[in-house]
Amino acid sequence: MGASPVGLPGSEIYTALEKGIIDAADFSTLANNQSQGVHDIAKYPIYPGIHSSPTVHVIMNLKKWNSLSSNDQEFLVNHFKGMALDSLLKAHYEDSIAYGEAIKNGVTPIAWIPEEKAKVRVYAQDIWKEISENSEVGKMYYDTLIEFLDSQGMLKE
Fold this sequence. Notes:
6 helices
């Protein structure tokens, strides 16, 4: 796609943008970026974003999981589903408020047209496939992503 990705800790993104070390960053939600002052120097955020929404990941040792009662397992599954939904709704709510504030402050959110999103999706699927061929976990994620994209009519042709 013509970019040269660089991994940076979140704490270094603002300074790297400010000093021109990087030209762009895929960091966080619109509201979070705005609250950290990123829009003071990066006036053209992509909104709505082009990547996944915030989510909650819970990782537990399988042996520990299997030692829990079925009631405890059911409770945890339901609890974290609710937590994930809350995170998603909160992020969308905060972004809608931040959008209005950003406009008032001279920020120009850019919405990618569907054709551009589709191009990125094609690149991503090729990268995911390559990773999946070298990792059992990568293959599992790849299969899940492809199944989801297919269910949404977004699978590359």
